[in-house]
Amino acid sequence: MMFMRRSTQSELDAFYPVRPECHDSVPKSRFKLKTGKTLSARRWRASFSEEGQLDIAKVLRRIQRGGVHPSIRGAVWEFLLGCYSPNSTFDDRSLIRQRRREQYDELKAECQKMVPVIGSGKFLTTPIVTDDGQPIDDVPGPHGSQQGSSDPAFEKKVIQWKQVLPQIGLDVVRTDQPLMFYQTETNQAKLWNILSIYAWVDSDISYVQGMNDICSPMVILLENEADAYWCFERAMRRLRDNFKTTSTSIGVQARLSTLSTIIKVVDPKLHQHLEELDGGEYLFAFRMLMVLFRREFSFMDSLYLWELMKIGYS
Fold first, then answer.
1. Number of folded domains that form the chain
2. Which residues are within 8 A (CB) of 210 and not within 5 positions of it... i.e. 6 or more apart?
3. Where are the stretches annotated Disordered (predicted)?
4. Largest CB tally within 10 Å, which of 87, 141, 174, 194?
């Protein structure tokens, strides 16, 4: 009988290495592999039938007991996020993957016509158009084709999208800075590509700060950019209401209200204490709920938390 070899903390940390100068400033990971409980690569392979159907109930039970081994996390998340049905076969998933990659390439090509920097391995951090959509000539690099459409609504969509691209770039630079993964412009550009293309496709939400924290794990876990995009897209189906904003409200406020109601019932003394501190609106939890505790824990621990929440799985 085979057992999962006990891994040291340094071996676990090697999956998501931190820049040496940041070791003392990032939260320490508490996640530990649990022999016989953590979903290992061997247990993962054994969860598929001969045709490729996944015993998702067995997988979820093991995740709840001990999380997912980092070596298989990307493949597991494609199921947890709902990219693939557990009832799909190996052949089904191969066809779906190919079709989605082609669809992503088409979306990227559409965006590249407007902003050629997309897909180039670089990204923008400075504006390329003015408020009225005119190109800023002193910005280096090609700006792509201008609107040139007789449809005012489409022209407005293009201008608004181009205006948000540098904000995405600035947030990309700040995303998971301690991780070695984002020390290369190529990896930063992958994150920027995905967020930029999503902002074009879902123009109602476009881009809101915090979406970079949701997308970053997908980019790190899945080598193929298209696969990472579709995982992010599935996650946003569940989380997009967090990022809806109007002139009077922000989407996550509904979750803050729910949290307040729960604490009031579960721990009325704590709720009263927060009220006395003028914290009854629970605004201190705004970031926690919006990005699902991504910035409160280490990268490893936040992924484990998401797995326990079975984010997006239905």
1. 2
2. 242, 243, 287, 290, 291
3. 131-151
4. 194
* Alpha helices, DSSP H, located in the chain: 9-13, 41-46, 56-66, 73-80, 90-114, 152-174, 185-201, 211-221, 225-239, 253-266, 268-276, 286-290, 299-309
Under the banding of pLDDT at 50, 70 and 90, the label for residue 312 is: very low
Q: Is the pLDDT of residue 145 over 80?
A: no
Tell me if 293 sits within 8 A of 305, measured CB to CB: yes
- Band (pLDDT 50/70/90 cuts) for residue 313 is very low
Angle at which helix 225-239 crosses helix 211-221, to 10 degrees, equals 140
Q: Are 104 and 50 within one domain?
A: no
Nearest Cα neighbor of 80 from 56, 97, 100 is 56
What residues contact residue 107 under an 8 Å CB cut-off, 6+ apart? 197, 200, 201
Structure confidence at residue 8 (pLDDT):
61
Do 76 and 117 sit in the same domain of this protein? no
Kindly report, residue by residue over 156-171, the tens digit of the pLDDT: 999 999 999 999 999 9
For residues 314 and 311, give the distance between their C-alpha atoms in angstroms, rounded to a whole number. Answer: 9
- What CATH number should be reported for the domain holding residue 140? 1.10.8.270
> Which tens digits make up the pLDDT trace of 279-303?
778 888 888 888 888 989 999 999 9
Answer yes or no: do 234 and 106 share one domain. Answer: yes
Of the candidates 187, 218, 242, which is a domain's last residue?
Answer: 242
Q: Report whether 11 contacts 33 (CB < 8 A).
A: no
What is the extent of the structural domain holding 171? Answer: 100-242
* Tokens representing residue 39 in the block: 């979903």
The answer to whether 46 touches 70, Cβ cutoff 8 Å, is no
Candidates 179, 184, 220; CA nearest to 22 is: 179
- Tell me, yes or no, whether 134 and 170 share the same domain: yes
Average pLDDT, rounded, for the chain: 89
